[in-house]
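Appendix B. Raw example, untouched.
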Amino acid sequence: MTGRLQSISNPLFFAGVLLFAIGLPLSMFLMSVSQLIIIVAWLFNGDLKEKLKKAFSNKVVLLLAAFFFWHVAGLLYTTDLQYGFKDVRVKLPLLLVPIVFSSMPVFSDKQFKTLALVFVASVLVSTLISMCIYVGIIPIEFHNVRDISVFISHIRLSLLICIAVYLSFWLFRRVKYGYGLLLVIIWFLYFLTIIESVTGLGILAVVVLIYAIKKILNSKSVRLKGIIASSVVTAVTILAFNIKNTWHEVTFFNEAELNSLTMHTANGIPYTHDTLSREAENGHPVWINICEPELREAWNHRSKINYDGKNLNGDEIKRTIFRFLSSKGLKKDAHAVQLLTEAEIEAIEHGVANADELIESNIHNRLRVTLWELNNYRSGGNASGHSLTMRFEFWQTALQIIKQHALTGVGTGDVPDAFAKKYDEANSMLETKFRLRSHNQFLAVAVALGIPALLLFIIVLFYPVFQYQNSGSFLYMTFWVTAFLSMLTEDTLETQAGVSFFIFFNSLFLFLKNKELDKNFI
């Protein structure tokens, strides 16, 4: 019986890894089931003592195990054990997956290419399903374009798309019909613009920049160096020019409009004017020429969302109306509402605050919104509901907690309570529903377990990079840059999807890939 189990263990293990790759973009359930299959296959393989000895002779496995058990130790001084045990359970793959992957046979070239293709195909299916939702083929209602990612968060999906792009590029010359993968890469890039993923596009841009610099340094061809360098300079110049122009759009304030204020609407109702506010849309001041009695009646006549309610993003809809009408250069009265098209009414209901968002590209709109958030925040505006500037509040709150618990942190289970308490103490302007955790993995570790644990985590991340066989690996290094950058703006290891993303590819590229497969690939 033992011999039979051993004979099926390797095929079962490979099937489990394939299922893991499929589950990452498509199913949380498959992620969990696949890990159980992988562990069962590992047990079937026998020689457990020898495999454990092999696993723990690897410094990467030892470091990850130490990091995991530090979280277990953090339960000793936590008060919310329920949350603490949940956090430990979520992080359990950080211990188990490296042990299993590092002690199983390395995949053959064929197995690894098959796995890579299956993962790329799974990500492709996930994006196609999302696009079907976007265009209405699949009748699922969404309020924000990012909600079309129905299996995992749009941020996690964008990270998986990045990995799929790297794998597609790596597979290009290694499989038949490799040119089809170039079309897949183009599709992935287009999809990232559709979901307005600054994270995904930004990470890809950084990876391309790193490898462009590497190519310049390693190439002996002066002509090739010149082409790459000029391309990089041109791309950076275009980006900087677009950011500068968009910043001007966001911050421009037409002073002349303050000198020609209208006192009454066409119906004789007085306007109100706040001439001290510097908030503007497309240069038009937002808080002048406002007649709320007319707006309320006209808006409630055309929309199912009450004027005094909230838009579908959870913000005050009347403020969205003010900003949208201002962006069109209109006064805020009944006549202006009557001029709006049905598409514009619907856009306002969904939280669109500038009319140009209906005619410009998604990614440019995302840039405009991001810069508007920064300008609003520096002017003293409330960060609630604004993804970038809320992070500033999260980070500041996390740093305050770390100052008070620098050595041990607050404990594995007390992180949410610590943040809630600190927000209250600071009288944070953030609405309760937006009072979230750090959204930075390094701060998250320090809050929970202290600065010594943070130092261990940094070693866990950087140790494999300085191993010679990994520093030349295209797949490992592109994954590593992606994971590292994601941790600067996200609590990557605080969710099942994030932990699974990190530990799967970290362990796959370190332990199951032939080290010579992509060494010096670029």
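End of appendix B.
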